[in-house]
Amino acid sequence: MPITIEAGWKEVLQQEFEQPYFQNLIAFVKEEYRQHRCFPPGPEIFSAFDHTPFSEVTVVIIGQDPYHGPRQANGLCFSVHKEVPHPPSLQNIFKEIETDMGIPIPTYGDLTAWAAQGVLLLNATLTVRAHQAGSHQNKGWEQFTDAVIQQVSQKKEGVVFLLWGGYAKKKGAKIDRSKHLVLTSGHPSPLSANRGYWFGNRHFSKTNTYLKQQGKSPINWKID
C-alpha cells in the first residue's frame, strides 16, 4: 500500500514512514483490507492530512477510532458521509455549537468544511475492521499519530488542541502548552455529556477568540 499523503505532511513524517513499526503496520492494514471489510475506504485513510495540509493546521481535534459501520467513516474524526445520520457524539457536538455559537444543527455530518479551514480531525487509530470497534488498535497507528501530534506541537505555534475525554487528554499530554492553547472537557458521547462533562464547554467560541488573538482566521463552524 503506497503512502500517498499531502506533501507538507510527507516531509515532516518521512522518518515515521521509514520506521520498522510503520512498515509492519502497513503490512497489517493491507492484509486486513484484503481479507475483511474495513473502514474507512482505502483512499480515505489519510483524508485528515489531505484535507488539512501541515502548513494550514490551526486547530487539532483528537478522536479515538473510526466509525465501524457501513458508509460512516470518511477519514476525519467524528465526521460521517453526508447521507449518514449523525452518530450520538456528533449530534452532541452540533448541540454545543448551537448553544455556544448560535449555529443551527446541520442536516449532514460531513466535517470536510472544517478540515478545509485548518482543523485537523485526527483519529488515534486510522482504520478499523467492520463492526469490530478497536480491532486495529495497538498495531502501530497510535505511535504514528503520537508523532503527528508531536510534530504539530514542535514545529508550529498558536495551535488550538481540543481534547475531549480521558483518552484524548492522555494522547495530548506532551503538547507544549507554553505556545499552544489546550482545551479539555468530557467526551461528547451521551454517557459523558449527559453527566454534565460536555455541554457548556464553549470550546468553539474559545477557539475562535484565541485564533483571532493570534492574528489567525477564526473557524466557521457552520457546515451547510
Give the ordered list of helices and strands: HHEHEHHEEHEHEHH
Distance between the termini: 34 Å
* Average pLDDT metric: 96
Report the major sheet.
Answer: 4 strands, parallel
Shape: globular
Main attributes of the structure:
6 strands, alpha/beta, four-stranded parallel sheet, 224 residues, 9 helices
Describe the structure.
This protein has 224 residues and is an alpha/beta fold. The protein is 38% helix and 11% strand. It has helices at residues 7-17, 20-35, 47-51, 88-101, 112-115, 141-155, 166-171, 190-193, 203-213; strands at 38-39, 59-63, 119-123, 128-129, 160-164, 181-185. The mean pLDDT is 96.
Topology:
Layout: H1 7-17, H2 20-35, E1 38-39, H3 47-51, E2 59-63, H4 88-101, H5 112-115, E3 119-123, E4 128-129, H6 141-155, E5 160-164, H7 166-171, E6 181-185, H8 190-193, H9 203-213
Parallel strand pairs: 2-3, 2-5, 5-6
Antiparallel strand pairs: 1-4
